[in-house]
Design goal:
Strand 4 (55-62), helix 2 (67-75) and strand 5 (78-86) form a beta-alpha-beta unit. The protein has helices at residues 41-49, 67-75, 138-146, 160-165, 167-174, 184-191, 196-205, 246-261, 266-283, 290-294, 297-311, and strands spanning 16-19, 23-29, 32-39, 55-62, 78-86, 92-96, 105-110, 130-133, 153-157, 179-183, 210-214, 220-224, 228-232. The chain is of the alpha/beta class. It has a single domain, classed as Ribokinase (UDP-N-acetylmuramoyl-L-alanine:D-glutamate ligase), CATH 3.40.1190.
Amino acid sequence: MKNPALKNCRSATPKILVVGSIAFDTIKTPFGEKKKILGGAATYFSYAASLFAPVHLLGVVGSDFPRQQIRKFEKRGIDTSGLQVRPGKTFRWSGGYEKNLKEARTISVSLNVMDGYSPTLPKHYRKSQHVFLANTDPEIQLKTLKQVDSPKLVVCDTMNLWIKTRLPELKELLEKVDVLLLNDEEARLLTGRENLIAACRDILRLGPKIAIIKKGEHGVILASGKKDFFFTPAFPTTRVADPTGAGDSFGGGFTGYITATNDFSAANMRKALIYGAVVASFTVEDFGIRALEKINISDVERRVSQIKKMIQIV
């Protein structure tokens, strides 16, 4: 491991609390089809973030969820004390991608045990200093945040569905978060702006200190303050099999790096952006969490070094 700041990251005191979906996905892309594989925003985030720091997982699964998978979570340093197991079936999503792999087409959604879910934090979760509100209903995100004592960093992800159907709740939430993650189309939908720089400025007026716009294969934009903008390219991988969970993995890499380094400076946020982009680059190379299961922090560091060389100005 080349980065001294990450040398002892697995034993770092801060832990990341994540709330979001744990699901079984059926995914079809031009490169194949996989049925009933582990997915969900909180799953991808947890696998990515646990490369850097311990994770407190908050969510719900059905009685059909394998006990073996819960043990796999725990072996990665993912605390499952906040994982509710309810009678019934685990949340299911089925979708597909066209040749350009730009946007998922949802075929079916079955909320199952997620219907009516209300998060309740175990006592030791309430002390979490770093919180990631993975893409889910803003009401669940708000209920979770209200139970955390005094977080130092709150990162939030969202999507077009909540912008269209839960905008008042989302705006209430945005007043309480430090970092908002969303993709380019979601940023345009939220702000009504076509220009993404203008959209960033409008997002910052809603409350977040930092706006991060994910542009898939075209990289990531970070904005803070009136004139502070940073851009990193995506890692140029040629093996794209399934983009599902790439954004959640980016969130895990970004938040995990900040937690491991315990550094909230603007310079470190930029570094975290690169780490997030790199972790996401592994996710897209295989279906589900398969790639995340195989990699370690040294693999991440190698790609970070390559990106740094790409953007270096001589």
